[in-house]
Amino acid sequence: MTKSAVKIASTQLPSVRGRYTDNAPLGSVGWFRCGGTADVLFKPADLDDLVAFLSACPADIPVTTLGVLSNTIVRDGGLRGVVIRLGREFADIRFDGHDVFAGAAALDGNVATVAADAGLAGLEFLSGVPGTIGGALRMNAGAYGTETKDVLVHATAVDRVGCVRQLTPADMHMTYRHTDVPEDWIFTHAVVRGTPGDADTIRAHIADIKTKRATTQPIREKTGGSTFANPSADELAAAGLPDGTKTWQLIDRVGGRGLTIGGAMMSDLHCNFMINTGTATAADLENLGEEIRRRVLDQTGVTLRWEIRRIGDVLPDPALVPDPQHLQ
Length: 328
Hints:
Elements: E1 19-25, E2 37-43, H1 47-56, E3 63-65, E4 72-74, E5 79-84, E6 93-96, E7 99-103, H2 108-117, E8 120-121, H3 133-139, E9 142-143, E10 146-147, H4 148-151, E11 152-158, E12 164-167, H5 169-172, E13 186-193, E14 195-196, H6 199-216, E15 222-226, H7 233-238, H8 247-253, E16 260-261, E17 264-266, E18 273-276, H9 282-300, E19 309-311
Parallel strand pairs: 2-5, 3-5, 4-19
Antiparallel strand pairs: 1-2, 6-7, 7-13, 8-14, 9-10, 11-12, 11-13, 15-18, 16-17, 17-18
Cofactor: FAD
Keywords: Cell cycle, Cell division, Cell shape, Cell wall biogenesis/degradation, Cytoplasm, FAD, Flavoprotein, NADP, Oxidoreductase, Peptidoglycan synthesis
Pathway: Cell wall biogenesis; peptidoglycan biosynthesis
């Protein structure tokens, strides 16, 4: 179970120019297409609106930021407090020489495409990263040998009390699939740097990445990208495994390919991808992931680290909830 806070309503929150939605369903907007609701969903009108909200929002009200939920499972019990989603006001992309200013709500693939059209190379990897720039900053997302930290000049975030902060990669202590920034800080934009190149060559590289993804990953399914991070060299050495062993190989070794719990399944195409076959609950997905972790630990000695974020409250198991009639 996760620690739950008291359910709130928008009437308890500061006045804003953006939009509040009470009891907002989140399953319909996430890539897994399952999960619970947010007490309140807030879409700020702009940066000033976001800053004003955070400055005035009581400290005891939880605040969570979500993007397009491309690598997130929202548990079936939903999220207490306020969920902030940045809209198109935070999705702008513009240039200053070789630098690309990208709002946190800009899709990673759009940044790669726009940069290619401008003749900027080095950002093609973003076309292989599902989600938004904000998510890429949060987890130091990467693909095909390049990580966000490799191209990042600086990022801007707003902390829980409404202070705007500019952060360099060194400030953020970015490591493999991790950024050391407080969870309640909200990224609003990034400046990434490309290098001059031939636009047609860059576009061809992006096309190759997209083709590779389409043939090796279940991108047309209800999925969330890689489920677990690859083990480090030290973790592999401690388990007596060859350097460079990938997570999918460990999952395959323990019979995880095609493994199903409820409506959740490890993809046959790429067994480090979980998919919702149509009826999965968030609990099905998380239970499947934990079963994979158990098998891999028991059989190889490696503890897999979730790459997919799991947030919110777990619904009680109906089988474990006492019948009220039996309590009388």
